[in-house]
């Protein structure tokens, strides 16, 4: 299965969405086992965008894990920062427009605070 490729803007939007996420899968000393790959598949199916924590100090090994995960699940690598991997795969009814949903630097307008001091 081929890995997905993302544009710079898509990757930026997905990184912004992933910032608040907690890791949903961990890869420990046993490495990238079949059970871990299956759990990653379940998480991608449910959430489309996930964080994975890798308990390994070897950066090259983490890079290989990221490549293997993306290859196995037809997903796109979004970010590898420290021991965290961020992976995205569109859902069955989504297309790549979902990656553009959140633009970095744009937030919903705030509602004005309500003052209760001079109400009659």
TrEMBL record:
Residues annotated as domain CRM: 4-100
Entry's Gene Ontology molecular function annotations: RNA binding
This protein's record includes keyword Cell inner membrane: no
Cross-referenced InterPro entries: RNA-binding_CRM, RNA-binding_domain, YhbY-like_sf
Transmembrane region(s): none
Domain of life: Bacteria
Protein's name in the database: Ribosome assembly RNA-binding protein YhbY
Keyword list, A-Z: RNA-binding
Annotated Basic residues bias: 100-114
Region (Disordered): 96-120
């Amino acid at each position: 299965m081929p890995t997905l490729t993302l544009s710079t803007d898509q990757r930026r939007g997905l990184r912004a969405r992933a910032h608040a996420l907690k890791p949903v899968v961990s890869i420990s000393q046993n490495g990238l086992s079949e059970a871990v790959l299956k759990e990653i598949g379940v998480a991608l199916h449910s959430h489309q965008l996930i964080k994975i924590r890798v308990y390994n100090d070897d950066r090259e090994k983490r890079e290989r894990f990221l490549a293997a995960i993306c290859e196995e699940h037809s997903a796109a690598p979004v970010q590898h920062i420290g021991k965290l991997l961020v992976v995205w795969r569109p859902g069955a009814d989504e297309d790549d427009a979902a990656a553009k949903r959140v633009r970095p630097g744009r937030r919903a307008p705030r509602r004005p605070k309500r003052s209760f001091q001079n109400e009659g």
